[in-house]
């Protein structure tokens, strides 16, 4: 085989190898982008759903408090719990779903970072508001449905306080695990984007 033929054959094989590498890089980039968008979108949808439900919970508190408006020991805590949910709804209004198709990798990184910061800074407030809302509404619910006046009976009040303490502890433990998973998934999404950016630099 002549030197020119050998050289041409080498160039062809080298080109095929480069094409395969580029194709693999494109596939990896696509897979990483799909993973990033998929995970981030799930967390985002869940947060938006929670935000919108806060408005529903606010309405529930007002309706139930309205039914027992004259009994202020039940209605006022329920109204305060509802207002706490309204505040939660307003505080989460900045959460917005980005346009994934039009967003650059840098934009997505920024969106994920902002969402991670927002989630971390509001985590304690969210947990406290949910616990506060349930505890303010529970006595009213029990009185309305089961006709049991918790505040007028020492035994019932003691049982309610014990259940409330247990509920608070369990909620804090479980919510920490949930937010930790949130943090891990968001960090993983950012790592996928970093890999994509590395491919683009080549």
Could you provide a short overview of the structure?
The protein is mainly alpha-helical and 202 residues long. It has four helices and no strands. The protein is elongated and about 100 Å long.
Description:
By secondary structure, this protein is mostly helical. The chain has one domain (36-201). The chain contains four helices and no strands. The protein has helices at 3-67, 72-91, 105-146, 154-201. The two termini are 35 Å apart.
Which key terms come to mind for this protein?
202 residues; single chain; mainly alpha
Number of strands: 0
Name the beta content range: under 5%
Largest sheet report: none
Mean pLDDT: 81
**What is the helical fraction, as a range of percent?**
over 70%
Radius of gyration: 27 Å
Topology:
Blueprint (H helix, E strand, L loop, with lengths): L2 H65 L4 H20 L13 H42 L7 H48 L1
Helix pairs in contact: 1-2, 1-3, 1-4, 2-3, 3-4
């Amino acid at each position: 085989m002549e030197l020119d033929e050998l050289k041409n054959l080498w160039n062809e094989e080298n080109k095929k190898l480069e094409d395969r590498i580029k194709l693999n890089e494109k596939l990896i980039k696509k897979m990483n982008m799909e993973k990033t968008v998929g995970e981030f979108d799930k967390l985002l949808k869940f947060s938006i759903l929670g935000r919108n439900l806060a408005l529903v919970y606010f309405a529930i508190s007002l309706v139930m408090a309205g039914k027992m408006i004259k009994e202020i020991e039940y209605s006022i805590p329920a109204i305060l719990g509802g207002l706490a949910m309204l505040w939660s709804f307003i505080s989460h209004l900045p959460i917005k779903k980005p346009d994934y198709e039009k967003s650059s990798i840098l934009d997505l990184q920024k969106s994920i970072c902002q969402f991670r910061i927002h989630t971390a800074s509001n985590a304690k407030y969210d947990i406290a508001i949910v616990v506060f809302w349930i505890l303010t509404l529970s006595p009213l619910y029990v009185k309305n449905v089961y006709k049991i006046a918790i505040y007028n009976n020492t035994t019932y009040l003691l049982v309610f306080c014990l259940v409330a303490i247990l509920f608070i502890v369990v909620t804090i433990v479980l919510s920490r695990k949930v937010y930790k998973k949130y943090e891990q998934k968001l960090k993983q999404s950012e790592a996928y984007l970093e890999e994509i950016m590395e491919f683009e630099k080549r």
